[in-house]
Amino acid sequence: MSSPLREVATLFLRLGVTSFGGPAAHIALMHEQVVRRRRWLDDARFLDLIGLANLVPGPNSTELAIHLGRERAGWRGFAVAGLAFIVPATVMVLGLAWMYEKYGALPQAASLLAGVKAVMIAIIAQALWTLAPKAVKGPLTGALGAGALVLALLGVNEIALMFGAGLLALGARGARGARGSGGPLAAVLAGPLATVRDGAPPAAGAVAAATAAAMTVPFSLPLLFLSFLKIGAVMYGSGYVLLAFLRAEFVTRFGWLTEQQVLDAVAAGQVTPGPLFTAATFIGHLLGGVPGALLATLAIFLPSFVFVALTGPLLRGRERSPGLGAFLDGVNVAALALMAAVTWQLGRAVLVDVPSAAATLAALVLLARTQVNSFWLICGGAALGLARGALGW
What we know:
The protein is an all-alpha fold. Helices cover 78% and strands 0% of the residues.
């Protein structure tokens, strides 16, 4: 294994084990490791990769990991980074699924997660502080970012915000010729663009139509695979959107699971590090044992590798395409605005007492004044959460 490939494998395995907190937290951790510490690429390139990951369906942080692996170690890094980031969470969720089937409930992890989330707020805030000056390149992108932040806090659909900001930036730059120079973008994103209507993928409408039948379908591994492949190929949005897709597919349409089982599957993805899409692993295990878990995991993540392979080459032409550059400038600043909105919402939910606020403040001070690695901050947050749970604080 070459040195860059070993670096990719080591880093993303470590992130796969420690990256709690959802996509915004994952992106902040990746920024700290690949830009600030290892200097594999600069902030501008990192922002462009965030923009591309947000433009296509699937788990954004996983797609960013795949992009970063390709940047560092080519096509082998492309595969290794994605697998290294996904596999640890898959193994952990498999363990939870086994315990769930044996004992009928998930282990309690609320205290640990509360401590970790308090620290993750500081890590995300530090990443935003670093990236914002690179994304806000002038009054136009500043206004787009501010508008996107306000609209995100008001609940406007995140995909509509990113595409809207990109198109506004494109139009404001007077890029009349962007249709020709942006042709590759249109070609690659024709499918994802077609899946977005009225703020949600039309596949959701197709699922709703299919669920009207409300019939129980005999379980089969091929049908399980195809169902998760469809979800991975069309799903934009948060864990709440994933919950809606899983409920429509496996409760209403097929009748394979109960409402509570789907909720528990999403909870398993939330209490483990790495991508939330590993809820598929949990469901696959409930329905088809280890083979079902592996097939479901493969199916839901496979589209992400395809989308990254298709969109990655677009950045090579950014300097030659003012239209694509302007579009990505708008997408990038909107993506950061969404991260800021998530941080605000997470802060309101987590910082409800003095110990949590103190943990976040201490993490912010350490990040600003020292070179402390976020891994140790996460460990400290987890220890604090467990101690509070044990002491009943």
